Design the sequence.
């Protein structure tokens, strides 16, 4: 049977920043497939390379970023082979992104209407004002904001409403892939919950794929069906999220993340943090980059970087699992 085409396909993606301190290896040889109508979580501590990867997929890299030879395909299209004009068309219509703190990036001197209409006009010179207006009202309805607010300026709306507007803009042209980089981090928990419910609701109807970036483990596992766990620029584990309710037979770092979640309903309120700090990406530890923090580290871990192994359908980079490879 022919394999379904992924919406997003990453193969051996590496990105380094050329900095005064040396080359910062922010993303280190990652591969992933994301299919239509799925939510995949990308989780990791601050500085693990999540935003770098999101921006790289959007072909929006910083000036000092260096991308090594790799494949980044969205809907089968290698986006690094598009010319500038085609890339501009491709972005937002096929793939879009809700950036970190995006709600503060809305233009303060333009109304919400102007900012939404601008998306339609910049991608379709022939669209009539009436049609663009109709679609703006429809979008406001999708994100549950009264269309009277099309006439509002960003500062007249709450943080939660502004974030919904940003999501509306990201989905305005019906993209097949939406990357969401910490879309709710700046909001209080109640608003965060309502935005997450809204994201789930819209995704169910529109069936696009979401790459949901966050450092919040419980939030990602609740939302996503599959999770890629990033440590020091690498995917140290890719797993389905329901198996994360049990910590056995996961990567030791994943186990640490699971133990660090507070279980409010349980009698046992002990939370075990992960000792130590993420490594310096200019000078990674030898072998497995997690070895200085890993409770299971042994000799080999300091000498050799583990290959990816398939362990009960999870892709894990850890020497502990060498013997159970399928
Ligand atoms: P956060 O959750 O804090 O946003 P992240 O996981 O998204 O973190 P990135 O922002 O991708 O991580 O950063 C990965 C690494 O690259 C970090 O060590 C960061 O300091 C470094 N970095 C990011 N941008 C640059 C740059 N322009 N020049 C040099 N280093 C950079
Ligand atoms: Fe720990 Fe070794 Fe596995 Fe790395 S390879 S996670 S150090 S046991």
Sequence:
């Amino acid at each position: 049977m022919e394999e379904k085409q992924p919406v997003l396909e990453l193969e051996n993606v590496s990105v380094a920043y050329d900095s005064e301190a040396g080359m910062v290896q922010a993303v280190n040889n990652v591969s992933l497939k994301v299919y239509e109508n799925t939510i995949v979580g990308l989780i990791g501590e601050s500085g693990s390379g999540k935003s770098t990867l999101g921006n790289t997929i959007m072909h929006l890299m910083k000036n000092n970023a260096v991308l090594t030879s790799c494949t980044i395909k969205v809907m089968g299209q290698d986006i690094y082979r598009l010319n500038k004009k085609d890339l501009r068309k491709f972005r937002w219509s096929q793939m879009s992104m809700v950036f970190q703190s995006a709600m503060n990036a809305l233009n303060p001197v333009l109304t919400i209407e102007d900012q939404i209409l601008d998306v339609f006009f910049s991608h379709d010179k022939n669209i009539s004002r009436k049609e663009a207006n109709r679609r703006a009202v429809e979008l406001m309805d999708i994100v549950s904001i009264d269309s009277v607010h099309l006439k509002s300026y960003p500062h007249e709306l709450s943080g939660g409403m502004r974030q919904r507007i940003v999501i509306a803009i990201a989905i305005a042209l019906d993209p097949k892939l939406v990357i969401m980089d910490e879309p709710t981090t700046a909001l209080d928990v109640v608003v965060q919950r309502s935005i997450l419910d809204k994201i789930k609701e819209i995704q169910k109807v529109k069936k696009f794929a979401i790459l949901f970036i966050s450092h919040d483990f419980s939030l990602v596992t609740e939302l996503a069906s599959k999770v890629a766990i990033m440590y020091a620029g690498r995917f140290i584990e890719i797993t389905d999220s329901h198996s994360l309710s049990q910590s056995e037979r996961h990567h030791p770092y994943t186990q640490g993340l699971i133990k660090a979640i507070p279980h409010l309903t349980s009698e046992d309120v002990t939370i075990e943090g992960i000792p130590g700090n993420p490594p310096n990406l200019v000078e990674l530890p030898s072998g497995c980059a997690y070895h200085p923090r890993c409770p299971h580290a042994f000799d080999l871990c300091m000498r050799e970087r583990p290959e990816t192994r398939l362990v009960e359908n999870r892709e894990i980079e850890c020497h502990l699992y060498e013997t159970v490879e399928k």
